[in-house]
Structure formats: C-alpha cells, structure tokens
C-alpha cells in the first residue's frame, strides 16, 4: 500500500468513527458496559493466545504476563464496569446568592475521537488499560499498537474487531510512517505512552489542532533504601527490589527501578542479599536464566550493551554483566557507583542493569533526586517516620511508594501519571474516565427574580455587596 | 534591519527571561511558597491590593477600554474579590492529602493523594478583562503554592503597568513577577522551561503557546474563545430575555468577551418580536445615541476596529443590518448592531466577532439549532432561553461546549463551583474555585506499605500455583486467595 492509499484508508476510518460518534451510540451507558463486558470476554477466551504473543515478543513468562498484563486489564475492566454509571452521573454544584434561583451541575461528556499510542514493553495492558478509559467515557477510538511487539500488535488487530464495536473502535497497525500520518489528523484527545523524545513530537503535532494530550513517559525512578536494622526487613526489601527491577519485563518498564540510593556502610549487605535473591528467582547459571523477559530487539540490546561496555561503567559491575545476543537475554546486572556522568546515570536505563549509588547519609538522597528531572515513580524503604515525611514533602514525582515497588500501579484509587519530564495527565480507575471526558459546566436559571444591579441603571456600585459569594457557599 | 533591531531591542530578551526563571526556581527551591501561611498571606495581600486600589483599577480600565466604572466593578473587581475569598476559605482543606481506599491486591497498605505545587508557572493574560484575567489565574497559581511570572497584555497598557506597580508593592516579589511586553518578550518567555503555562487568548496564539510548551513537555491550560451561540425559543419572558441578552452582549465589554453572545439562533416567526424587544431595551440602557453612552466600552484598538468594520462592510452583510451600525473611528466606538440572516458563508458568520455586532440566524424549527451548533467548532459557552423543559433536556444532552447556561448569559463563569474552560477549539483545562487550585497542582499518588504481607505469587520462580493465586489476588477474590494458598 502506498502512502496515498494509506492516507485515504485512514481518512475513511476516521470518517466512519466520527459518524459513529455523531450517532450518539457510544454515549449510552448500555454501549459502554457492553464494550467493557466484551473486552473481559476477549481476555477470558484468548488467554493462551495472549500468553503466546507476549512470549514471542518479549519472552514473558505466563505468570509475569498475567500479573502485569492480563490480570491488570481484567481488574481495570471489572472496576470500570462496576463504576461507570456512577461516574457518568452529573455532579451538582452549589450556587452563590446572585444567581438564585438557579441550579448548577458538572456533566461529564465524551471528548469525541481519541487516539491511543501504545508502547512495546507492556503491549497488551498499555493498549487496553487506556482503551478501557476511552470506552468508559463514551469515545470512539483508534488504537495504534507498537510495531516493536508485532505478535501482540497482530493479536489486537485481529481480535478486537471480533469482540468490540468495530465502527467505534479500530486498531491501526504500523510503524513510524503510520504514526506520523495519524498525527496529522485532528483528534479530540491523544493518549501516548512512550519516551519523552517521541512525547515532544506527539505534543507538537497535537498543538496544531489544539488537541489535549496525556503523556505517559518514564524517567529514572530511584529507590531510597534506608539502612534497615531488622534482618527480615532487609530480606523483604531485597525481594521486592529484585522482583520490582527484573520481574516486570526485565526492567523495561516505565516505573521499574532505575537505580538505588543507599548509605556506604549498607551497600555490601544489600549487594550480597540482592545476589542471593537473584539466584533464587532467576537461576544461578547465567547461560540458563529463567523467569526473565528478553530485551525487545537488537536495537535495544545494543543500546544496553553500549551502556555497560563503557570501560568506567564495566569496571563498576559487581554482579552479572553477561549478554546473550542470540536469545537477547541480559543477565541481571548490579553496578556499584558507576560514574554519575556516564550514560547509565544520565539516561533512563530501561533494562536489567541496576546501579547502586552510595551516600554518606541517606538524607542526601533527597538532594540527589531533586537535582535531576522528576521521575514517574519514587520508591523509599524506610521505617523512619520523620524521613518518610521529609521525602513526601521535599521531593516531587508522579507517585511515591513506601516499602514496596511497582504495586502502586495496581491501585485503582490512585492516579497514575507523571510530572515534569515524566509526563502529564493521569489515568487508572476514575482518572481514566476523567482523562477521556470533558467536564461540561451546566447552569440553569429561571426568568423571575431579576436583580437590577447587574444592569446599568444603578450608578452606586458600592451597593453591590450582594455580588460576593455568600458566606455559606 | 540590524540597526533597527538594535534600536528596538526589547529590554526583556531571552537572557533576561532565563535569569527571571532561574531566580524563581531558586525561590521555589527554598520551599517557602509551599506553606499554607505563604499562600494565604499572598492571597490576603491581593485582596488588600484590590480593596486599596479600586479606583486606580477602574481608572486604568477606563483608559484602556473606556470600560464603564459599573462594569469594571461588577465583572473585574468584584469577581476577583469573590474568587480570592472563596479560595481562601477552601485552601486549607484542599491542601490536605486525600485518603483513598486500597484493595486486597496490595494488602496491607494505605494510600493517599497528596497535592503539591507544580513549580514555576507562566500566566499569559488577555486585554479584554486585563485585570480580572491576569489576577484570577494568579490566584490559582498562588493557592497551589507555585512561583510565577504574569505577562499581562500590552494592548491594555494602563492596566499592565498598574499590575507591575501594585504586584511589586503588595506581593512577594521573589516568587511573583510581572513581565510587561509584546511579541518579543512573550517569545522570550515561551523559550523557557515552565512547569505549567496558563494562556488566555485566541486559538492562533494558543497553538503557538502549545507548540512552544511541547519542546519542554510543559502542560498547558488554554482559555480560548469561539463563536458562542444563543438559542432563543419563543416560549420565554421576552423582556427579561432581551435585557439578559443585552447584558450578555454589549454589557460585557461591548461584546469583547470570550463568553459573550456571538450570535442568536431563533425561529423565523419569532425573530421580529425579539428584534423589537432588543431595540426597545437597548434604547433604555444606552439612550438614543449609544455612541455617546458612557455605559458602553469602546473597541480596544484601531486594529480591532478595522477587523469589526471589515465584518460589517462585507457586501453581502451590510444590507442585513436591522439596528444600529453607527461607528466613530476617532473614538473607537461602535454602536450595538443587530443583523438578520447574514449569509452563512460571510466572514461575520465564520470568525469570532468579539465586538458589538449581533447576527441573528433564523430557523424553521428551534431544534434545528442543535445541528447548526454541532456542525461548527465547539464554543466556550452555549446559551438557551426557553421555558420548555424538553428543549432544555435536549440542549444539555446534545450540545457540546465548555459550559452551558440556560436562560442567562455568561453568569456560569461567576460560579466558583463550576469549572470554567473550553473544549476542542475553545481550549483545554479549566479553572475557577477549586478547579484553579487543581490546574496548578500535581496530585502525587502515595502508597504506604509495611514489610509484612508479601504475596509469594509476585516473585519467581513462577509456578502454576502462583498463577492461580495471582488470578485470585488481582480479581479481588478473597475465597480464591485462600483456596490457592491451601493448594486447593
């Protein structure tokens, strides 16, 4: 297909989606619920296919695939299904005295036609989780899966039309050229998950049409690890760090731990325990690692290799470091104090490398974090309540989790999204609904009780105190 | 060119902008703007500023726009006072973390959403309500604990310089700065990295602002305008409607307001009655010669006067005037002007009017107006005058706009319980009341876990039993969890 034909096809698809939206069908609670139910059915009936696609694209183990993708989507869809009617109800506002008698409300309405860009690292959940929001809010949608996870992309393109309303929800597969063509169109919302570099391109394109965007980016998510005194706490922390770093897609996750901040005196204890846990979780033989996702492609593999082949960085490796180009597996690798100006400490790692940076006093971690771009997630393991409070008030990040990693992603009641370089806009649960809704302000007045001061007959404007908000408002 | 550049070199260039931002970042880093005390004290100073200088503000607005004192008081001063007081009343509560529920998936845990300031923000305001539209977003930015730069409009110079003077006297100048200027100064500001940009103005500049923000991944709030339609049904109180229409068109800065009525849609049969009522009330409000009325603002600039004249002088339009049409170029005055059935392809029916011209479009059946509105870009506000309940219901359901108001014009924006903002071409993001606080706030998700309660299913080595437990955990199925744990 040449680019003109493709453009024509995209144009036709968009025309159909706009027509569907105008018909008003996607606004009804019935349609929204039926689509959410159909999505749940799709997840139930195609579990094995999803496992297979995720294994082919990323080597994800079924347990990992269920934990990070299928399970997350099913949880989100069920939650939205049970709440959507409540979310759709107008919120009533109270009205100041001047407007009496009047009644006001905020009525959520769908934005219209939304475009969702999916990234390759969680190719199922990062496609369907935003889609759940767009459907719950009553929009029509184009979903553009990542071409770097081709099996999952093909699965979505093939399966979604079998379950969901294909006149309202379309999957468009393709690479950069297709993405660019899609970005030239006018959308009512663009939801993007990916890198800051592409995020800027998306936002610039959206600016031409005044389209609001949600950018789910990444960044270097630190862990602050206080010197814990209780051995069992240290063990739990190590387990959670190892699970949170290498568990989800081998560190190729936007909220994966990027580096650890710890006191000098605590570093060796930590490293020993991490090693032990890694061996337990992923096996001791670097040639036969199990339960570990692969690096998505050669390009990413080479990028990671370049990062650790920098001699100064290579010298700081204290565990792992072996690479298997054929299977695209990189061993869980720990580095102790690599140079702060090297790529591993200036770029988002997005892979199975874990630098440990030591400090004299753990409280220095706050300054360390504040001198860098705001991360999507910040993790802190500590039992010190005063330190917790200090971290909470003195650092900024999309989310902050104490004593665990990644699990904040699973809380429907918490907004998920970045700040600063890690993006803006938020989703999950009700926030997904809000992200794809316009909050329409509605005020109703009647014809009686006309207050004259509003008009021009009164010259003495000091008599207008009635304009002020009443005390009880 | 080069020598001209030298002469006209703006006092405020990129370098100056960069050092301004640097200073503000340093202030923000001291964390003083985060405290409730700082925020409240600044808001109270703002209130005092407004109270102490009411007459200076009114004078500046008269100088910039010939804005009648009464109008200046109602739509700028009093609105700000309410806004400030409302926010002061709610602020302490809004700053509190919001506890939220967690589920068994992360059991045991607790979670909260903690509001925190975004950092250093830029507010660019407009000339039509040069005081109100400058200070109202600033109130939100301060309430949320940010450091900020305000860039008032150079097209309202008296208000702009008054803002510089008064902000310097009343507010913490290490955290709140006013930068005056036109395109070069604004461009220098837009080059900088901000944590939020709040822009009020038109779609053309809105696009420039959004594109500049994209380079730094800065979120933007765009408060734009559009052609706000008014549907007038025949089932109404005609006198009250006519008065509210006049108040909502010519009483709002002589139509130079983003929420003022752009055009009316009514039925063919009802149009003559409506026009008669409007004429009658217009004379009552503004006298026989509105060009000399002191109760009407003037047109802001000769540029804008030329734009409005062009709309009016188009061949196919000039014959459609049914009332008014008088102009005085020297005083920049245009009389309230009503047009009937201007052709659909005319400029006046396609560009935002932003002035005292009011075209009336007629339809056979009033419900046709919904499809007319929906065939165009989404406006900032849409209005309906009717007593018909069914029609109201259909209007609310079918018409998309930033806000909807039934049986009045513009008043919804004075309600701090309603979000004020556009959708589509009329902008994005909203403010007023708590929404102003939110628009300048990052809501940080915070999850507290203890060291107990680790579900082994989370960790490798992975087994079929772990998959079963995981399914139960993510499904929120307690029975399932127990079953999986006992291996059943």
Written overview of the protein:
The complex is a heterodimer of chains A (473) and B (488). By secondary structure, chain A is an alpha/beta fold. Chain A has helices at 3-23, 29-45, 47-58, 62-88, 125-136, 150-163, 176-184, 196-208, 231-246, 264-282, 298-309, 311-314, 343-346, 364-370, 385-394, 430-435, and strands spanning 91-93, 102-110, 113-117, 140-144, 169-171, 189-193, 213-216, 221-225, 257-263, 317-319, 323-324, 329-330, 333-336, 353-359, 377-381, 399-402, 423-424, 437-445. In chain A, 43% of the residues lie in helices and 18% in strands. In chain A, strands 10-13-14-9-8-15-16 form a seven-stranded mixed β-sheet, with helices on both faces. A six-stranded mixed β-sheet of chain A has the order 5-4-3-6-7-17, with helices on both faces. Mean pLDDT of chain A is 92; it is low at 455-473. Chain B has three domains: 2-224 and 433-443, 3-Layer(aba) Sandwich (Aldehyde Dehydrogenase, Chain A, domain 1), CATH 3.40.605.10; 229-421, Aldehyde Dehydrogenase, Chain A, domain 2 (3-Layer(aba) Sandwich), CATH 3.40.309.10; 455-486, no CATH class. In chain B, strand 3 (120-124), helix 6 (132-143) and strand 4 form a beta-alpha-beta unit. In chain B, helix 2 crosses helix 8 (183-191), helix 4 (54-65) crosses helix 5 (69-95) and helix 5 (69-95) packs parallel to helix 6. The interface between A and B is large, with 109 and 107 residues. Strand 18 of chain A pairs parallel with strand 16 (403-406) of chain B.
Question: Can you lay out the helices and strands and say which pair or pack?
Answer:
The complex is a heterodimer of chains A (473) and B (488).
Chain A lengths: L2 H21 L5 H17 L1 H12 L3 H27 L2 E3 L8 E9 L2 E5 L7 H12 L3 E5 L5 H14 L5 E3 L4 H9 L4 E5 L2 H13 L4 E4 L4 E5 L5 H16 L10 E7 H19 L15 H12 L1 H4 L2 E3 L3 E2 L4 E2 L2 E4 L6 H4 L6 E7 L4 H7 L6 E5 L3 H10 L4 E4 L20 E2 L5 H6 L1 E9 L28
Helix pairs in contact in A: 2-4, 3-4, 3-6, 4-5, 9-10
Chain B lengths: L1 H7 L5 H16 L6 H17 L1 H12 L3 H27 L2 E3 L8 E9 L2 E5 L7 H12 L3 E5 L5 H14 L5 E3 L4 H9 L4 E5 L2 H12 L5 E4 L5 E4 L5 H12 L13 E5 L3 H16 L15 H12 L1 H4 L2 E3 L3 E2 L4 E2 L2 E4 L16 E7 L4 H7 L6 E5 L3 H10 L4 E4 L13 E2 L5 E2 L1 E2 L2 H6 L1 E9 L14 H11 L3 H8 L3
Parallel strand pairs in B: 3-4, 3-6, 4-5, 6-7, 8-9, 8-15, 9-14, 13-14, 15-16
Antiparallel strand pairs in B: 1-2, 2-20, 7-18, 10-13, 11-12, 17-19
Helix pairs in contact in B: 2-8, 3-5, 4-5, 4-7, 5-6, 10-11, 17-18
